[in-house]
Amino acid sequence: MGTSTTSAPTSTPEVDGAVETRGIEPVPDHERRGRVRELFPTWVAANISVLLLTMGASLVINNGLNFWQVLVVAAIASTISFGIVGLLSVSGKWGGAPGAMLSRAAFGVRGNYFPGAILWVARFGWETINAVSGAYAMLTVLRLVFGIRTNNFLVVVTLLGFVACTFLVSGMGRKALNLCNKYSTYLFSLISVVVLIYLIVEMPWGAIFAKSPGSGAMMIAGVGTIAAGGLSWVPTGPDFARYLPHSASGRKIVGTTVSGAALVLVPMVVMGGVMAVSNPELANQNTDPMSFLGQVLPSAIAIPYLITALIGMMLINSLSMYSAGFTAQTMGVKLPRALAVSINAAISLIGGLFMMLVAKDFVGQFIAFLTLLGVSFSAWIGVYGIDMVRRRKKAVRYDAESLMTIGRTSRYWYKGGFCWQALTAWAVALAAGLCFTKVQWFAGPLAGTWIGENGLGWAATILIAAVVFAVLPAAPENETPAPAADDARQAVEAG
User: Fold this and answer.
1) Contact status, residue 36 vs residue 254, Cβ threshold 8 Å
2) Which of 69, 176, 227, 339 is the most buried (most CB within 10 A)?
3) Minimal CA–CA distance to 240: which of 341, 403, 89, 410?
4) What is the pLDDT of residue 337?
5) Which helix (H) or strand (E) is 198 found in, with range?
6) Which helix (H) or strand (E) holds 318?
7) Tens digits of residue pLDDT in 294-318
8) Which residues neighbour 466 within 8 Å (Cβ) at sequence distance 6 or greater?
C-alpha cells in the first residue's frame, strides 16, 4: 500500500517490560518491530466465542436456512467484515497510532469526540455481552463438573472473576495479548478438531442435508447479523497494526486478518447450524447461551470445549478493553492506558450484573445489540475509509505531532477543531442507518423497506457516509507548523 513518513512524535519511550507503557501517542519508527504474521492469532482469538454457535443455530431456526446456506453466509460475512477490518488496519502502520487517535485526522481534534463517544458506548455494550457470556460459561462448567446449581451469589462471583481476569490481561498490553493469543489458537484448534470429529460421527447428516433452503432475503439478513460482530472490530484494527513498519504489506495485513478470523468464525457458525438440527432448542436459550453444550455434547467434550471457549472470551474482552483504554485517553481521560481500561471493566461489571440478575432474554438482547452495533460502527467506517483513500497519495499521511496537539496549531484543527464535512457525513449516515433498523424495542420509519427487511441497514450506513463525505469538498488541513515539543506536551496535559 506504499510507504509513508510521519513527523517525529511527542512520545514516552516504550519500556521493554511485561506491561506496555505506551498510550495513544504514535509509535516512532525505531520501535516498529512488529510482524504481519502476529495479526493472525490476534484475529483468531477475537472470534473464539461460543456465541457464534448460538448465532449459527439462529440462522437455521429463525432464518430457516439449510447447511449450505449457513456455510455461504458465514463465509461472506467473515470476508466482508474482516476484510474491512484489514483494510482500515493499514492506517495503523501509516500513522503508528490507535484508530481512535487517527480518527482525529478525519473528524478534527474536537470533532472526533462525537463519533468517539458513540464508539466508546458501543464498546461498553460489547464488553458487557462478552463478560456475561464468559460468566455463563464458568457457571456451566461448575454445573457439569461439580453439579453446582446457579444462584445469585455465584453469578456475582463468576462475573467478577471474569472481568478481573480480562482487566489484568488487557492492562498488561500488547506483549501479553500476543502471547495469550498464540497459545489459545493452538488450544482452540485442537479441541475444535475433537468437536468436529464428534459431530461428523454423531449428527443426523441425512436430516441436515435434507433440510429445504430458506429465502435469499433471510440469507442476506443473516450476513448482516454475523458481519455486525466483525464490524465492531474495525476501529480497533489500527491498534494492533501500529507497531508494524511502514514496509509491511497492506495486502498481507488484509489477508492475514481475514484468514485468522475466518478460520474460527466459519466453522463455529456452521457447527451451530448443525447442532440446531439435532437440538432445535439451541437457538432459544434466552437466559443462558452456554448451557446447550451440555445437552448437545458429552461431558468429556463439552467441559474442555467450554473451558477453551472461556479462555477465548477472556481474550476477546481483553482485546476490546485494550483498545477501549486508547479510546478513553482520546476522549480526555487523564489516566495511563492500563488504568484507563478500568472504566470499561467497571461498566461491563455493572451491566453484566443487570443482564444476569434482572434481564432474562439474553439472546434477544444480543441480536438487537449486534444490529445497533453494526449501524453505529458503520457510520464511522464510511467516513474513515474515504479519509484513508484521500491520504493514500499524501507525502505525510498522518502528522504525529499534530495528532497529539489539541490546539489550533494542529494540522487537524480545520474550523474550530471540527471537520464539518466529516461530521455531517457521519451524522447523516447514522440517522439514515437507524431509520432502516428494526430490533425488539425499536423500529425505524424505513425498517419496512427492502433494505430494512433484508437487514442491510449497516451496509447502507457505510455507503451513505462514504458518498456524502466523498462529494463534499475536502477540508483543507492547517499548514501552520506544529508547536514545539514542550508546548505540545502542555496542550496534551491541558486536554
Assistant:
1) no
2) 227
3) 89
4) 63
5) helix 174-202
6) helix 299-330
7) 677 788 888 888 888 788 777 777 7
8) 382, 383, 385, 386, 425
